[in-house]
Amino acid sequence: MRYPGLLLAGTAFAITPLAAQAQEGSISPSDTPSDTPAGGVASPRSPPGDQQGSNTSISNTGALEDIVVTAQKREQNLQDVPVAVTAITADTLVNRNVTTVSDLPRLAPSLTVTTGALPTNNSINLRGVGTSAFSTAIEPSVAVIVDDVALLQQAQAFSGLSDIARIEVLRGPQGTLFGKNASAGALNIVSQGPTAKLTGAVTGVATTDDEYRVDAVLSGPVADGVGFRINGFYGDRDGFIRNVFDGRRLNNDRSYGVRGRLTLNPASNLTVDLIAGHSVSESRGTARTFRLAPPGAAIFGVPIASLDGIEPGKDNFRTSIDGPLFNKSRQTNGSARVTLDLGFANLISVTSYQDWRFRFIEDFDFVSRPVLGIPGGIVAQSGYHARQFTQELRLASKGGGPFSYVAGLYYANGDTDRSFDRGPTGPVVARWNSANGTKSYAAFGQFTYDIAQRTHVDVGIRANLEKISVSFLNLVTPAVAPANNATCLATCRGSDKDGVVTYKVALRQDLSEHVMTYASYATGYKGQGYDISTGFTSTRAAVPVRPETSKAYELGFKGRFLDNRLQLNVAAFWTDFNDFQAQSGVQLPDNTIQVFLNNVGRLRTRGIEAEFQARPIEALRIDGGVSYTEATIRKFPNAQCYTGQTAALGCFDLDGAGPSTTTGQNLAGKWLSNSPRWKANLGGTYELLLPNAPFDAFIQADVSYQSKVQFDLLNNPINIYGSYALVNGSIGIDQKDRGGLRIALFVNNIFDKHYVAALAPASGATVGQLSQTFLRNSRRYGGIRARLSF
Q1: What's the rounded Cα separation, in Å, for the pair 658 and 597?
Q2: Which of 162, 117, 196, 148 is nearest to 279 (CA)?
Q3: Residue 763: partners with Cβ closer than 8 Å, 6 or more residues away
Q4: How far apart are alpha carbons 638 and 617 in whole angstroms?
Q5: For residue 477, what are the contacts with CB-CB under 8 A and spacing of at least 6?
Q6: Which helix (H) or strand (E) holds 540?
């Protein structure tokens, strides 16, 4: 095995490199190529060896080989799927030093990640569209699926990446097969079953920014028809934001986890695949720093200029806080997949349960001085507990004729409890408990018919019924509650239900053996939900935020050229959203930031994407992509004004525009937040064969580019951030025999570009103040990665 498996730390599912499947042989849950389960054996066309830095398998003859994806819940050649898909392999993730979901935008055009102060405020965006919301009851626009199991809370995906076979980035509505919260797309994370013979590996990483990590994996047969895989990891990275008040290094990460997988073949036509795991991730929060502070700028009356000599600016990696900053995620998951071969089709059952707990404590005011007469300042803390049970039953044909299908039934029952406490006293105090539930029932099917030898039509449909509920208890008495606090004097309860039918039609035409084009139309749906936050009222409980719908048109081209040494995939898209769900923040008279969830009337995203892989010579592999996206608001007539917006800047009188303002603005034609027009990435690996040495060598480099972006839904001009490019590279040696030792020296962000992941004003800030959020990759760091395998 060329590389050890990686682990999705946040979800604790076992996953192994696709290339290693063909090299080692797998105990597959199904031998049927038309519907091999996630974790099944790769297509016989998959070559031995690894792909060191490419998103496409490479043969020993120098030609590109097929990559197999499960983007349509059945095993298919990537080039035959009428969907815009980026397939990122395990080797690419390792070679490009991708360790979290937040790193994925470097590899996938049209993908961005919105980073909040907490993982629960993060969002994954495709083609400019995603959902970042404080409320636990609002679903994402981009679904995250791991081994056929959709995560209940998108925040579960932000705990880190490890032991990944591949990540399929599916762009455009995917609700027909992946459910009601995939109106903009999906991340499909796929795992591999145990290997047919005993293999193992240990990988260690050490970096210049004080990260130390070890991953270990052992896989093989237990007996005839019984295989296992066990994986564990431990990582500890120090923080990169310096707290000058007490010397703490914030924004660190410590995580560990273990999981096992067992595949059983009790009969020739029956396979049982069991996965269970547990993982923990904790850090000293996500600290923001001051980027812009005009003269006299203050936080809750505390002058920023007085904060221990901190100088706001684009290179400011220092903060000064006197309160706690901490968050911890703990997750336990399990799934069982049973595949019964009926001869004409496979009957597949997927049962899962997930339990996720998250807790955070933060210094709400982010200054190291008394605030509002409170010596220790304002502290906010919250706890989450999310549970979900799912059951899916589907029938998948085995092919062999002009007609094939996948049809099934789906049930999910999820609950999320949350407590929130902000205070301890004063005008910003808030204290409440909430619980929300969601039950989903669905029937779905996707059918393919070969109209002619080179002409194919795909039709998919899904009927979904969802029931939602909420319970909210305000724990602050009316005598002490500020005007913006929850007005529920007792428990506010609400429930509702909604049904929808989504569908997709795609026409494919094979132009030659290796070239095809397609046209598709699809509808998407994201369920309604409750805007659960401080300020929750009986009105919010009675009237949930309306569901989000989308209509998408797509034209695509996929082809192989130059004796299979060049692959080019192009997609043009046009998607209209109605009632797009988006969150914005407005500063209230008491200087707190109140978040509101809005139904933006209409939204349009359109553009073009292109991806390529090439092997011009046997030793050189190149891959890259570019996307152009126009994501604009078409109708939002009564949006809140941004803080400091005047009549001259478009803020007009609007009686009843919100609980604390009588002004509004018209956002029609404005930029959608965190949606850059241009994104591009380019990478390559060159192998140096050393005939007289026990090792070969390699050189790898990649660059990613993003144009300027607006971080504020309300289009405050100070929240616009300029374009930037990042360059990474590595060199190393690899033992020639299969297995053995591989060592790589790498540098991320070679030119030390201090880019930001988010811009926003702080609560209690004067007009013009701006805070920034950095990622770990916002500073240059290097390291060594060594792997020993057998």
Answers
A1: 12
A2: 162
A3: 299, 300, 364, 365, 428, 587, 591, 592, 593
A4: 58
A5: none
A6: helix 538-542
Residue 729 contacts residue 698 (beta carbons within 8 Å): no
DSSP string, 368-412: SS-BTTBTT--EEEEEEEEEEEEEEEEEEE--SSSEEEEEEEEEE
Residues counted in the chain: 790
The whole-number pLDDT of residue 295 equals 85
Q: 64 and 57 in contact (C-beta within 8 Å)?
A: yes
Tokens for 105, please give them. Answer: 């935008």
User: What pLDDT does residue 631 have?
Assistant: 94
Range 343-373 burial, b when 16+ CB lie within 10 A, else e: eebbebebebebebbbbbbbbbbbbbbebbe
C-alpha closest to that of 255 among 12, 15, 14, 9:
9
- Give the pLDDT of residue 738: 62
Give me the pLDDT at residue 623, please. Answer: 93
Are 157 and 74 within 8 A, CB to CB? Answer: no
Rounded average pLDDT per 10-residue block, the chain, 790 residues: 36 32 35 35 30 40 77 83 88 81 87 81 87 78 88 81 84 88 87 86 95 94 92 93 93 91 93 93 91 85 81 93 91 94 94 94 86 82 94 90 93 94 82 93 95 94 94 75 57 91 95 94 91 84 89 96 94 94 59 64 93 92 95 88 87 61 83 92 92 90 95 90 95 82 95 93 80 93 93
Task: Note whether 151 and 178 are within 8 A (CB).
Answer: no
- The whole-angstrom separation of Cα 171 and Cα 154 is 17
- CA-wise closest residue to 318 among 360, 375, 374, 368: 368
Neighbouring-strand partners of residue 474: 432
Q: What is the 3-state secondary structure (H, E, C) of 613-675?
A: EEEEECCEEEEEEEEEEEEEEEECCCECCCCCCCHHHCCEECCCCCCCCCEEECCCCCECCCC
Residue matched to tokens 């395990």: 90
Distance CA 764, CA 773 (A): 18
* Secondary structure string (H, E, C) spanning 119-179: HHHCEEEECCECCCCCCCCCCCCEEEEECCEECCCHHHHHHCCCCCCEEEEEECCCHHHHC
Token digits of residue 619: 């030793």
Residues contacting residue 746 through CB under 8 Å, at least 6 positions apart: 97, 728, 729, 730, 782, 783, 784, 785
Q: How is residue 641 written in tokens?
A: 């004004």
